Amino acid sequence: MDHKISEDFIEEVRRQADIVEIISEHVVLKRTGKNYQGLCPFHSEKTPSFNVNPDRQMFYCFGCHTGGNIFSFLMKKEGLAFIEALKKVAGKYGMELPERELSSEERKNEAQRSRWREIHEWAACYYHDVLLHRPEGQDGLAYFEHRGIGPEVIQDFRLGFAPDRWDGLIRELADKGVAPEELAEFGLAVRRETSEQEISYYDRFRNRVIYTILDVKGAPIAFGGRVLDDSTPKYLNSPETKFFHKGRNLYGIHLASRGIREVGYSLLLEGYMDTIAAQRAGFTNAVASLGTALTKDQARLLKKYAGKIVIGYDSDKAGIQATLRAGEILLDEGLNIQVLLFEDAKDPDEFLKKHTVAEFRKKLENTITFIEFKYKMLIRDTPLRTIPDKAELIRKLAPDILKVSSVVEKEGYERYLSLELGLTLEAVQHEIDSLTKKTRGNRGNPEIFSQQQDISVKKRNTIEGTDIDSFQESYVHLGVFRAEQTILRIILENPNYKNQVADNLDKEFWRLQEHKFIFENFPENSLNLIDNDSWYEKVQRRLAEIYELSIDFDKADMLLKDCIALIKETKKKETIEDLQAKMILLEKSGDMTGALALLQEIGERLKRGEK
Fold first, then answer.
1. What gap in Å lies between CA 597 and CA 576, rounded to an integer?
2. CATH number given to 248-375
3. In CATH, what class is 7-92?
4. What residue ranges do the domains of the chain occupy?
5. Which CATH code is given to the segment(s) 104-244?
6. What integer best gives the mean pLDDT of the chain?
7. Mean of the pLDDT values across residues 89-107?
8. Which of 238, 351, 349 is nearest to 292 (CA)?
9. This prediction's pTM
10. Burial state string for 40-63 with b = 16 or more CB within 10 A and e = fewer than 16
């Protein structure tokens, strides 16, 4: 492993990467609750026991007990070294490994990014505080109350208010050492030069309710402001800057990332209030595309969380055009796209005001596919009067149909057009085929390898043959093994318990070296920066195994006490023969320190006449 790669970079790659997407290239995964399951790629099985947890970004097989993170999966599956696995994952998500020390310019850039985040956090706190606690925010609070938004939602979305002052934010952040030039550089203030060449600055957002744009971690990265009167522009958004790009972020993703995983699809909406209204009604998978046309980057971001998108844009002409553009971009990414239709409301926010949550849910159950939606919009705008009109319509829909990877879906759309247009299926298929170099010779033998699991035995083991350190575990009392893992699960959840364990048990009480390593290094040192690739895989496997334990953390104190007592009691009953067997294993694993400690204990017991 290469220590020149910083822990920050490794964690950034893990944050950007999607373990479900990476593993899906090797395993057919099916969502089951919050997790995904499939047939294990490391041993032969007929019933899925391979589990992927997207929240923790870890995998674990309950059959062969193999587990780990995104890097250890590729190391084991593709025989890669850690640095190769890191490079592969980073490359997939457009990141390059830093092969050298940062230049002065790069260090300056990183410092500037840190400053940008700090200033945006201060600005978000200021707007939020004005809304909730200062007299200047009363109009904004009244507006949100009128829209049915209460304190909890205000907190969740970090909503705020920019007072009707030219220098509210400038003065507030000046007390924190922020210069107006910095605010202007980051899009929070505007630079003004008079005819006398005097330079001054004023707040970008004034007398507006503030929608804070948060990244997936919940950190503020930009703002959107809406006026409370008829002045223009009605909406004002943070400009594109060196560190903020509208087309790479989604409004509400900080809350929706988990919701999308849980329900299996994204609800893509158009505005801030649509997203807030949907989230408030319990649709925790709702996001918005920041008032811009959907971009490829946003489509890829959505794809990380689920393969299905329901578009719920406004029902006016502009909203329909935006739906058509978004659908084509999402199709390019191979996503399953449905469209939500509103007959008696302009948008989701208005619909939820007029109707119940149950009626909105029923709408979601009756969406139509994007291609059906596009067909309906095309014939609405241009009624079909002649046979050439029908042929032209098929040609307009053909590019979208050809993007669909499923052969069954493709034929379904072709049959749909056949019935709608009164044409034979063969005629529709021939018209579509004529627009591509591909021939229907592939129709009976489609290339669907991306949807098939790699079941070759080249990189697989059987349960009987897999090396899962069972030879070492067989010498560990089952109760002690479980006690060690329970202790670590509690510490991983709350490191404050670590001192309690250290005070009650000596340093050499651990029976498994991976357990000992995790205990000694978490949380002070990284569990990623490990010199030996084989050791890295073992540690990550144990971590995945431990995280799968179901623990009642409300009873952590009692559990910890019981585990410590069991370990102490078992150690008293341990025979010299047990210690000798353990010492041999430690020697084989290269832990000479542990082996010598056991040798010393064996000697002391022999002196006491024990057997």
1. 13
2. 3.40.1360.10
3. alpha beta
4. 7-92, 104-244, 248-375, 382-440, 470-573
5. 3.90.980.10
6. 84
7. 78
8. 238
9. 0.61
10. bbbbeeeebbbbbbbeebbbbbeb
